[in-house]
Every structure is written in structure tokens, then in C-alpha cells.
Specification:
heterodimer, A: 276 residues, 8 helices, B: 350 residues, 15 helices
Chain lengths: 276, 350
């Protein structure tokens, strides 16, 4: 009898966990908060997983109701019922802690990439991708001529560069690989303030998290800004800056930097990462 | 030996629960008091735990679909494909079957998150251990998805793609060959066979005997579900450890190790092991270290990580005997290390 109760509890726990994960995944996709965790291009996959988990939940309930004992009910190897606590922890965290994107506190653990992000811009218009990749890779034997009528060409002609979520990677690669082409141009850019001891007093990093699959693989990308009012900016604050691209110094290297003329504090964007 | 494994996983679970208790304490405090603060945008209160949660859940959310795919492939193999069919399809020769296992990823691009259940099921179904393991090592790297993401990340140095694929190919081939001479049994944990009909629990299961098609579908769902729970807890544990490492260790500390060949390779391998990111994303992380570490150590990162990482090792220990997992890890680590060293000396020598 006790054995039976134990099995019933275990089946119940299983059903609960399956339902919990199914609802969690579905809700994340549905509310759009999935962008805090994984690349939205996987949203379909996550939704599929939610659906499958729900079917597994139904199967589990059906199985329990018919008293058709599960093999797994005999204490799974390596942990037994303790294993279920392992599942409960992420579920509790997911339901009881608010969803939040990575913030500047995490930035201290990451190495900001103040050089070319070598990636091609996947978020841009589809036709732009091969040209983008070709033009940021001067060492390859791709015909350079094809790159001209592309976003890169437009970028080089523009007098003011407006950095958006879509062209972030492209602009960063371009500016760091061909700084001479861009020196003197105006620029406006959104990001959050990053700061540590590697910066001069009048410098700060204006950075974004660049994410490929999930926020565990986030890297920091962005530019160094030089600003007379730099000291007044709080670490982690979201701002837009406008200024011009100049050459500056950072860690004994000459790098393109933004000489900031003005900044504006803004709300954190709805989709805080740059996805590629 | 089995006692030892039991105890190891018990200790791991206890440690896990202790650290969870600590987090739960935070969680309760936050749920009670901190929530309005966080909603109001004052993140500074519990920054650590929110970042931890984001990384922890994102690894899980990313991996769960692939684990589900993995356990369903395994369950379908279990319920629909007989041992004879597999035996007929496999090449007779050891060398051909290793080669085939290496290249199978080109047709079935699988992620490393879901591959352990598939490999275990293949071994249960009578596939030789070395073929299944070679497939497990090679498939997450030698496939079109990973190749294209590597090409994207290293657009400036396209030779990295070929070096990565080549190194992965030789490491998995050699590992498979070595294993084929060392191990002749299946090296499965004894209780891994529990899901077979003779599970000893004294009940009759639907999928025993000669089941109907509907019965098989039901059986597939059941075994997928059982395996999801069996593998899933190690995934959670691995994600938990990886997220702690990410939240509390600084990448900046790695920079000090720098350009020296051997130590930088070892560092990047350890980094890959702890980080446990998906094989289609790790190239971008490697690329962000492009100017800090040698090409060889970046390759070591990109080859070792998908083959051996924290969450997979935990799942492997659950599926296979401990001595096998230890030896496998050692062989792969040794091969990747020497391969990366060779590449480093080639790159530096011109």
C-alpha cells in the first residue's frame, strides 16, 4: 500500500513538472519574453517543445489514472526522487522570480569586444548577407566589386550613421576593420554604459549584448565613448549618444571611438540583446 | 564500482540541493520583499540572482527542445526498430563503421544536448560501442549547421572551419579506433537496461510482447517520458553549474593566461567544459577571444566543448560505467590537446 502511495506521488510530481515546463515555455513565447533567454528564431522550436511536453503530461496523467505503473516509478538511477527536486528548482525560479534580461552586473564578467565582431549581419535584409560577409573579410578571395551596391556601400557614403538593432553587427565590423573610412562621420547609437578600471576618467563603453543562441553565449559588443560628462553616467544606464567617430586610445591601442556631443537617458529596449 | 557511482551522484545531488537552498533563501526573500523593487526597475538589489536565473533558464530553454528530440529518437528506435534491422544496416568492418559514424552528422545534424540518450539507445540496440561513441563525438561538430556558423564567426580566417572539422574528424575517428580495441562489452550502467521489458517490476507493460501500432506509439511516449526525466535532471544540474560559473567567474581572468601555447589550450578546454554552450554558438564565443588566444586554443575550445562538457558528462555518467566515461574523457582531452598543439606550432611556424 505504501509502495502504491509512493508511486502515486511520484507520478503526480512528474505530471506537475511536465505541465510546469509546458506552460512556462508556452508563456515565454506567447508574452515575447523569450527574447530575454533565447534567439527568437528558435521560438517555433520552443513552442513545439511546449506542445510535446503537454502531450507527455497528458500521457502521464492517463497512465496514472489507469494505474499502469511506470517503470520509472521504481526510483530512477542516480538520485531517485531527489531528481525531481532538480526539476523543481528551475520551475520555482521561473515562476517566482521576475523575467529580466542580463544587465550590467553581468558585463563585469564578460570581456567587451572593442574590435571587429567578425560575424556577418544575419539580421539585415537577406540579400545583404553575402555582400556583408565578403566586405568584412578583406583576406578572402571574394570579388570585392559585388560589395558596392550593398548596405556597406550605403554606410560608407552616409554622413551620419544611425546604429540600429538590425545593422549593429555590420556597423561594428565595418568601423573596426576600416576605421579610416569612418573617421569624422557622425553617429547615433543606443546601448548601456559599461565601466571598469580599464577606461580613462572621460571614457565609458557603450555596449550591447550580442547573442547567438541563448543568453549563455552572450558577448559584449559596442564602442568606446569619450565624453566630458562621462562621470555623471551610471553604470548600466541605457542611453542614446550622438557624436562623431574619431581615433582614440584604449589599453595602449588606437581605436575608433565616439566623441560624444550629447546623450539622452532612455528606457531599456523591449528586446535588449542584438541577435545574430 | 557501482556503489562508487551511486555515491558520487548522491554527493553531487546533495551539493546541488545545498546550493539550491541558498538560492531559495534569496528567492523567498525576493518573492516576499524584493519584487516591487525589481518591478520598479531597481535591479541593483539582487543583480546576481536575476542574471543567474536568466543564464540558467536560457541554457535549459535552449536545450530542452533538443533533449526532447533526442529522447524521442531514442524512444522511436526502441519501439519501432529491431536489433536485426540495425545489424543489417551496419557495415561489417570496424573501420567502415567508424568512418560512417563520423560522417553521419552530415545527414542528421544533431545538437550535443540530445545526443547522449540516442547514443545509449544505439548501444542497447546492439550497435558496437565504438561506433555509437564516434557518432556521439562527431555528429555535433561535423554537420552543416555548425560548419556554417563557424564560417560566419571566422569570416576573416576561413581556414578555421576546415581546421575545426578536420580536428573533430580525426579526434573522433582515433577515439573510436582506440575504444574498439580497449572495450569489447557495452559498458552500459547495469540499471540502464531497466526500461526493457524485463524491468523486473513484475507488471506487464504495453510495449511488451508483440504490440499493435497504437501500442507502440503509446510505448514510445512512455519511454520518451521516462528518459526525459532520467536525462533531464543531469541537464538541469549541468545547466545550474554552468550558469554559476558564468555568473560568478570573470572572463577577464582568462586573459592573463595569454599566448603561451600549452596553458592557453588547457585553459580554453577547461573553459569549454564549464561553459557548456551549444555547438552552433560556441564559434562566436571563440571568435571574441580571437586576439587573445592562439588559433590552436580556439580550435581546442570549439572541438572539445561539443564533445565533452559539463552537462553531457553528467548525462554520460548516468548512462555508462564510470571507468568508461573517465577513459573517454581522458582520450578525447589528450587527442584534442595534442592536435591543437600541432596546429599551434604549424600556425606559428608559418
Amino acid at each position: 500500500m505504501r509502495e502504491k502511495t509512493r508511486q502515486l506521488i511520484e507520478s503526480g510530481l512528474r505530471a506537475l513538472i511536465l505541465l510546469g515546463f509546458a506552460v512556462l515555455l508556452y508563456r515565454l513565447v506567447d508574452s515575447g519574453k523569450i527574447v530575454y533567454y533565447v534567439n527568437p528564431k528558435y521560438a517555433v522550436l520552443v513552442k513545439g517543445a511546449a506542445l510535446t511536453l503537454f502531450v507527455m503530461f497528458l500521457a502521464q496523467v492517463f497512465r496514472t489514472a489507469r494505474r499502469d505503473h511506470a517503470c520509472g516509478g521504481h526510483g530512477l538511477p542516480g538520485g531517485g526522487k531527489w531528481g525531481y527536486i532538480a526539476f523543481m528548482v528551475p520551475l520555482l525560479m521561473a515562476y517566482f522570480l521576475p523575467d529580466a534580461p542580463l544587465d550590467a552586473g553581468m558585463a563585469a564578467n564578460k570581456r567587451p569586444v572593442f574590435n571587429a565582431r567578425i560575424a556577418a549581419p544575419a539580421a539585415g535584409p537577406p540579400a545583404a548577407q553575402p555582400e556583408g560577409a565578403g566586405s568584412v573579410a578583406p583576406g578572402t578571395d571574394r570579388p570585392a566589386g559585388t560589395a558596392r551596391p550593398s548596405p556597406v556601400g550605403e554606410l560608407r557614403k552616409a554622413s551620419i550613421i544611425d546604429v540600429s538593432d538590425d545593422n549593429f553587427n555590420l556597423v561594428m565590423s565595418e568601423i573596426y576593420l576600416f576605421p579610416d573610412e569612418y573617421t569624422g562621420k557622425g553617429i547615433t547609437m543606443l546601448g548601456f554604459v559599461d565601466r571598469d578600471e580599464s577606461f580613462l576618467p572621460n571614457q565609458f563603453g557603450l555596449v550591447r549584448y550580442v547573442v547567438t543562441c541563448c543568453s549563455a553565449d552572450a558577448t559584449l559588443g559596442g564602442m568606446i565613448c569619450e565624453y566630458n560628462h562621462a562621470a555623471g553616467l551610471k553604470k548600466g544606464a541605457w542611453i542614446t549618444v550622438s557624436g562623431t567617430i574619431q581615433k582614440g586610445w584604449y589599453e595602449q591601442r588606437i581605436l575608433p571611438v565616439i566623441k560624444v556631443t550629447s546623450h539622452k537617458e532612455v528606457e531599456a529596449p523591449r528586446s535588449p540583446y542584438i541577435y545574430q | 564500482m557501482r556503489e562508487l557511482i551511486r555515491n558520487t551522484s548522491k554527493t553531487a545531488i546533495v551539493l546541488f540541493i545545498l546550493s539550491c537552498a541558498y538560492l531559495l533563501w534569496h528567492l523567498l526573500r525576493l518573492a516576499g520583499l524584493g519584487r516591487p523593487l525589481v518591478d520598479a526597475g531597481i535591479y541593483t538589489v539582487n543583480v546576481g540572482i536575476l542574471n543567474f536565473k536568466t543564464v540558467f533558464l536560457s541554457i535549459l530553454i535552449e536545450a530542452i527542445p533538443f533533449v526532447i528530440i533526442g529522447v524521442f529518437i531514442s524512444a522511436v528506435l526502441h519501439n519501432f526498430v529491431s536489433e536485426e534491422t540495425i545489424r543489417r544496416l551496419l557495415p561489417r568492418s570496424r573501420y567502415w563503421s567508424i568512418l560512417l559514424a563520423c560522417l553521419l552528422g552530415v545527414i542528421f545534424p544533431v545538437c550535443e544536448c540530445g545526443i547522449v540518450p540516442v547514443a545509449r539507445r544505439l548501444v542497447m540496440k546492439g550497435v558496437p560501442l565504438y561506433s555509437a561513441v564516434t557518432f556521439m563525438l562527431a555528429a555535433p561538430i561535423i554537420n552543416p549547421v555548425v560548419a556554417s556558423s563557424t564560417a560566419m564567426a571566422f569570416a576573416g580566417s576561413p581556414e578555421m572551419v576546415w581546421l575545426r572539422l578536420g580536428l573533430a574528424f580525426s579526434v573522433s575517428c582515433l577515439t573510436g579506433l582506440m575504444l574498439s580495441f580497449i572495450f569489447h562489452g557495452r559498458e552500459l550502467k547495469a540499471d540502464a537496461d531497466r526500461h526493457h521489458c524485463g524491468c523486473g517490476c513484475g507488471h506487464h507493460h504495453q510495449h511488451c510482447g508483440r504490440p499493435s501500432f497504437a501500442g507502440r506509439v503509446g510505448g514510445t511516449l512512455q519511454s520518451a517520458c521516462d528518459e526525459f526525466f532520467e536525462m533531464g535532471k543531469y541537464l538541469v544540474l549541468g545547466a545550474f553549474l554552468a550558469a554559476s560559473a558564468q555568473t560568478f567567474l570573470s572572463q577577464g581572468q582568462l586573459i592573463g593566461i595569454g599566448w603561451e601555447s600549452a596553458s592557453s589550450i588547457l585553459t580554453m578546454m577547461a573553459f569549454a567544459f564549464i561553459l557548456s554552450v551549444c555547438s552552433s554558438a560556441d564559434a562566436f564565443i571563440a571568435a571574441s577571444f580571437n586576439n587573445v588566444f592562439t588559433g590552436g586554443s580556439l580550435l581546442a575550445f570549439m572541438v572539445f566543448g561539443p564533445m565533452v562538457d559539463l552537462k553531457n558528462t553528467l548525462m554520460l555518467i548516468n548512462a555508462f560505467r564510470l571507468r568508461f566515461v573517465v577513459l573517454l574523457t581522458f582520450i578525447v582531452a589528450f587527442l584534442v590537446f595534442s592536435g591543437a598543439n600541432m596546429i599551434n606550432s604549424r600556425l606559428m611556424g608559418g
